[in-house]
Amino acid sequence: MTKKIWLSSPHMGGYEMKYVREAYKTNWIAPLGPNVSGFEDDLKQYTGAGCVSALSAGTAAIHLALILLGIDEGDEVLASSFTFSATVNPIRYQKAIPILVDSEKDTWNMSPELLEQAIKDRLKKGKKPKAIIPVHLYGMPAKMPEITEIAKHYKIPVIEDAAESLGASINGKQTGTFGAMGIFSFNGNKIITTSGGGALVSNNPEYCQKATFLATQARDPAPHYQHSHIGYNYRMSNIVAGIGRGQMLVLDDRIKARRANFDFYQSELADLPVKFVKEPDGYFANRWLTTILTDSYEQREKIRLALEAANIESRPLWKPMHLQPVFKKFPAYTDGTSETLFEKGLCLPSGSNLTDEDRQRIVEVIKKQF
Ligand SMILES: *Cc1c(COP(=O)(O)O)cnc(C)c1O
After folding, report:
1. Hey, whose CA ends up nearest to atom 5 of ligand 1?
2. Which one of 86, 135, 237, 290 has the lowest number of neighbouring Cβ atoms within 10 Å?
3. Whole-angstrom distance, CA of residue 95 vs CA of residue 330
4. Ligand 1 pocket: which of 109, 161, 192, 236 to mutate (most atoms <8 Å of CB)?
5. Over 90: is that where the pLDDT of 1 sits?
6. What is the C-alpha to C-alpha distance for residues 136 and 174, in angstroms, rounded to an integer?
C-alpha cells in the first residue's frame, strides 16, 4: 500500500521537547507554570491581543467567553451556521438558543447582510441577541469590518471563533482581536498544535483574568477553599503549553507552507472546473485547509472516493449547523449558500508537512476525475 496522506496532521518543529523537558526537570507537571505563562506571552506578542488565557481547548474558551458575557438559559446567540459543531455546542451548555446565520460567497463566512436581517427579526420578535459568533473558517477571515460595524450599531458583543485562523489578518489586524473576545484552538489538526488546547484572547485584560479564574475552579482569595462562583477545570497543562511554545517558533513557516499548498493546487488545477476562495483586498488567510468547490455533488464525490482509493484523505466541507439533527430545530437565517458549499465542496490534504511527491500524487488523482 502507498503511504497514507492525511488531511492535516501534526507537524512538530523540533523545539517542543526542550520546553517539555524543562517542565519535567523543574517538576512543573501541573496546569500552571512557566510554559503556560510563556505560551500566553508568545500568543499575546504574535496576535497583538491585549491579554491571553491559555485553556484546555478551543471549545472551553468559547464556553468561558459566553459565561463572561452573562449568556444564560433562554438567551439568544447568533452564530455562523457553516462551521464545526464546537462553535455552537457551548451555546447549548448554557441552555441558550443558537440563532444560525448563513455564509456569504466571498469568504464563505458569516454573511453581514443575513446577520443584520437576523438581528432585526429577533428584535421584532421581542428578544435582543446577546452575542455574535463569527467563524474564520479554514483560515479565511470573515468580513469583520462589516460584522463589527453591525455589532456596534446594535450594541451586541462579538466572540470570534478563530480556532482555524491563527495568523490570518485583515489589513494587518489579526483574527481573534476584532471582537470583545476571540478564541484559538491547538487541537492536533490545527495550524499549530499542542495535542489539545485552546486560548481566549481579548483587548480587555479583565476578560482574561476572569477566564483564568473560572478555568481554575473559581477559587476566591482565601487560605481555605472558598467559592462564590461555579468554576471549571479548563486550564492548559504546563506540559502541553511547552509544545505550544515550541510550535510558536515555527508558526510563520507553517503558514508559508500551507499557503504554498494552496498556490500549488490553484495553479495545478487551474484548467479544471473547480473554484478556490480568493482573499478579498487586505485579507490574509493562513490557508489552514485548501478547499475547492466543484460543479456538482457527483463530481465532488468522484474526486473524494478516488482520493480515498489512493489512500489520500480528503473531506467534504462542514455540514451547516442548521442541517444538523441536533440543531435544526433552532432559528436559522439562510439563503442556500452554505448548503451548496456542503454539497459541492471538498477539503484537500493541506498539512505543512506534505512533500512535493505527496502533492504531485494528489493532483494526479484529481486531474484524472475530469
Ligand atoms: C477546532 C475547532 C473548534 C474547537 O476547538 P477545540 O480545541 O478542538 O476544542 C472550534 N471551532 C472551530 C471552527 C474549530 O475548527
Report:
1. 58
2. 86
3. 12
4. 161
5. no
6. 11
